[in-house]
Amino acid sequence: MTRASAVRGTVATLGLLATMTLMGCPGKGAVHPSGSDDARSPQGGSASAPASTASTGGAAAAEPAPVPAAAPATVPAVRQYDRRDGPGWRPARGARVVADPNGPAADEARLLAGDLGLPFDRGPARAGDVELLPRVGQAGGPEAYELTTEGRKVTITSAGDTGLFYGTRTVVQAVRTGGGLPEGVIKDAPDRPQRGLNLDIARKHFPADWIEARLREMADLKLNQLGLHFSDDQGFRIESSSHPEIVSQQHLTKAEVRRIVTLAGSLHITVVPEIDSPGHLGAVIAAHPGLQLRDATGAVARGAVDISNPESARIVDDLLREYAPLFPGRWFHLGADEYRALMARDPQASYPGLADAARRKYGPRARVQDLATGWLNDRAAVVRSLGRTPKAWNDGFFPDGVVVPDKSIEVEYWTGKENGARNPQDYLNEGRTLVNLNDEFLYYVLGEPNDFRYPTGERIYGGWGPAVLRGTAAASAAGPDRVLGGRLAVWCDRAAAQTPKQVAAGIHVPLAAVAQRVWDPRPPTRPWPDFRSLAERVRR
After folding, report:
1. Could you give the residue ranges of the DSSP H alpha helices within 117-195?
2. pLDDT for res 20
3. What pLDDT score was predicted for residue 453?
């Protein structure tokens, strides 16, 4: 089965339909505006039914109007456009999407054909067509692409199928916003390798089709990473065979997760699972109360397991091993944030049992933080043995300990509000790589507790960038090899504060702003009101 045969839900917007109808494109019976994802798949009539006629037919009855010679209006903006004289390209009658049907570009070509309501054909390409050509060794890497519009034909080339896919997203957005592509050459590539959205599906259940809709929105914005935080105090939201007792009544089945992961893969998005530990495990503790951490007075440490109890590690490792095959991407997020024992003013005095366990395991100078660091390193070793790269939140990394956090763990930097908060520059100076989830700009927290405010696209667009890791100050030495990218994060602290529909509407423009800033870190040139309008015009 090709990636194109997965459930891709390709969508042509009503605005695109109207534009193409006015231009004489093969719209009737070719594109399905019914809202059915199946009807719009590349296997539907839109992608294949007219192919035999188109491949033998002649040119369009009349030459389409020229496209103005200016960079196409897209989100994110293309990074380089070299203007040439000529008419450009519009999807006129007789146009096709052309690629080798047995080659690596076939899936992307079929998807583009479905989006534009054009036939897919093996070629050879001619005037009016869009051709996708893999080009081994092309500069820029697998996410970079070149798009050449010349002689009323468009050619997309890339060293990788991801780059070809991003080229097709530029074509689709250019048709939506301007009717076509201008004459010339576009050279485009992302600045940061990790770009995306983080979803808290533990505190609030989101249906599978809602998550799939976010994937399609992300793909159009050339975002490539979806984090799923599915375990917390309020719920455990994915079916489990190793520990079914911990699963919440409302949850995603494994079949639904496979569908999500398959769609994500077809859209060049990696899904990153997160099982947060040793804090945020209230749903696990509810089924296993013997794991509960208590302080010296016997008071419960909410959501925290006793990391001196071997049974705590056994259950978490069972879950890591169970879910790794379900999420075949590169990463597994281990959480490690807000462990209650380390939020105490004096962890050794408040949690003497953990302090004793630390000294027994790591020597007389060891403290509770060393026991927690050892826990993180042990979980990281488990996910590495499963072929995954571990991630963890920045407040799970502690300096000056007997035990040092493993350097292979990617730091997801979100806050500077924890006890003993460290500047993000400290992590960079240690040689660590960071991903930016700056809670000042990128945290969409339902109900706005703890002084959080819903992020605005305008503030992200004008004041944030990958190097702005904490507060509003930029870190130094924060290039793409050190700060790997960023994600907008939805947290559902007050789950009832918004419906899924409201969340989708609330994050749409901020997500577009994030997409722009991680694709191109240079200050945006398009005025904010124009960008906001554009973000609405390019959406599905």
Report:
1. 161-178
2. 43
3. 96
* DSSP letter string, 191-206: S-SEEEEEEE-SSS--
Contact 367, 401 (CB under 8 A): yes
Exposed, middle or buried, 500 (CB in 10 Å: 0-12/13-18/19+)? middle
Residue 254: per-residue pLDDT? 98
Strand partners, 197: 226, 488
| Nearest residue to 196 (alpha-carbon basis) of 267, 112, 146 | 267
pLDDT of residue 540: 66
| Pairing relationship of beta strands 184-188 and 80-83 according to DSSP bridges | antiparallel
**For residue 14, what pLDDT is reported?**
37
pTM score, whole prediction: 0.89
How many angstroms separate the CA atoms of 324 and 341, rounded? 28
* Beta-carbon contacts of residue 219 (< 8 Å; ≥ 6 apart): 165, 169, 267, 268, 269
Q: Which residues of the chain have pLDDT under 70?
A: 1-61, 540
CA 47 from chain centre, in angstroms, equals 27
Is residue 349 within a helix (H) or strand (E), and if so which, with residue range?
helix 347-350
Rounded to whole angstroms, the Cα distance separating 369 from 362 reads 11
Structure tokens at 338: 């807000």
Structure tokens at 216: 């399609």
Q: Which of 326, 251, 241, 261 is nearest to 283 (CA)?
A: 251
For 102-154, how does the pLDDT look when each residue is reduced to its tens digit (9 = 90+)?
A: 999 999 999 999 999 999 999 899 999 999 999 999 999 999 999 999 999 99
